[in-house]
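Researcher: Batch entry, complex prediction.
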Amino acid sequence: MDSPGGAAAEDQQEFAGRVKSFFESAPPLVDGENVSKKIAGFISRNRGGEADRVVCVTSGGTTVPLEQRCVRYIDNFSSGHRGATSTEYFVKAGYAVIFLHRRGAYQPYCRYLPEDSFLDFFEVTEGSAIRVCESHAKEVTRAIRDYRAAVDGGLLLKVPFTSIFEYLQILQIVAGSMKPLGSFGMFYLAAAVSDFYVPWESMAEHKIQSAGGPLDMRLAPVPKMLSLLRKEWAPMAFCISFKLETDSDILLKKADMALRKYGMHVVVANELSTRKKEVVVVTDTGKVKVRTDEQHREVEEKLIDLLIEQHSHYIEESEKDAVNG
Amino acid sequence: MDSPGGAAAEDQQEFAGRVKSFFESAPPLVDGENVSKKIAGFISRNRGGEADRVVCVTSGGTTVPLEQRCVRYIDNFSSGHRGATSTEYFVKAGYAVIFLHRRGAYQPYCRYLPEDSFLDFFEVTEGSAIRVCESHAKEVTRAIRDYRAAVDGGLLLKVPFTSIFEYLQILQIVAGSMKPLGSFGMFYLAAAVSDFYVPWESMAEHKIQSAGGPLDMRLAPVPKMLSLLRKEWAPMAFCISFKLETDSDILLKKADMALRKYGMHVVVANELSTRKKEVVVVTDTGKVKVRTDEQHREVEEKLIDLLIEQHSHYIEESEKDAVNG
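Model: Structure tokens for the complex:
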């Protein structure tokens, strides 16, 4: 919770210091200029076009390198299933989606397919043609068709990350490019972001040697960039964050706290064991439970419907404010 | 280095204690009976058949869970490229391969293809047929054909793992099944195995909370199971382990040490930055540098040739010993 009165300014200064030292400690983004160009191009092509709404869906876990020449790292578990699924429903609803995802996590339009290897779906005929195996023909054909339609229609841009450094650097770039969209922009922050990191400077240059007994590590907390996103990077965008806990007792409390502390418009609360069937949408007007049912086998279908409704309402209110203000 | 004289017995007892507590602390292997059956079936189908030699190729990094309901874990970086590539050359040479790999790491026969998503290789024609995009036609067709041939020919069994617990449990099962093969069995241990772990019992049940400042962790060293593999699990198998370092100064010294300490037949030494072009094959008769050249674009091609030669020699010597003994 934020400290009241006089302590707040001090807290803010301390926070700014931690943000600065995080970004200063980050290794430069590889091919950063190109990444920026691609993102800016995608948004400007969509702005004012058919898809006037753009959502940045973040997905998968970030890693924290423990060594500069990275052999070992701490990873946050996340299959990326939520983000990949949600991306499909956003595209279906006409949103342009920047899919900011962990390399190797689930991808939109290939969630039904066995994860192991796509080689299992195909066979080579005697005439050296490729044929989809009978058993997978339907899903594979639909997956390829829907994927092609999204990409060729300019509604899907995939941007990969691995480390917490890459993730936050790219998120800042995306937010900067989306700022001009005002309330038509949305952030759907489903990525599992590391809470702790090892500052690059203090990291071992070479591989940590295992010869001598137990290993002790001290990790610094990652500054919570959600407040920055809301206050500076893209203040008008509609922001949805996720809260995942394994302990249901503290889940809703923490979701409420995140809503207030970071100024989110929505926090989606989910418990690890039931997350594919049920989530709770927490806003400052209340809590709505969203569950799968006979007609909606994927909880994301109803969730995205509800969020789009809330986004539309938010856009209306913002436009009114602009007229009245 | 091993302690001399009287201390050795004590060391061994301490080691046995650490092994015991590692396996006792491990969560039970999911679907373990089925995994055992598949492995035993694969080996018995190949035993005395056309592929009388069986190699277990391990590939990719293992993870160390930090929480029982795993959200965070420490990961060892390894793309699994070496293991996937080597598997193809072993199959080509007529070995039956148990490919014990990290879920999501590189797979044999799809190493050339962009990692992102197989959906990019295909298009749907107007008649709803699937067609490989012109740009990838050659690689995709070859990949599917070679993969099918390996699987249908019974020369490739893929077994996935994620955590260090799963990896070592399955490795023990494979070794037990391969023991009867004697010197015809080979272990090619290219996986990047964690050096440290958090004992399951002492692990946080719920997600570690990030509220309070820095995070301190203490990890226990993973007992080196290589000695067990050599002495107990499959004492006659030909064993190759890998040593990866970022610091070339200590690489060869450590490779030599591993050779003696764990009784490996071969240690393949590689440096992180040059590992795709050059490795050093270390045995007790000397060191051989293996490098890519015009005819051999992949260092694994020459490496596997050399190792198979050494394996053949080892089989001959073992048979002589058996006759003379």
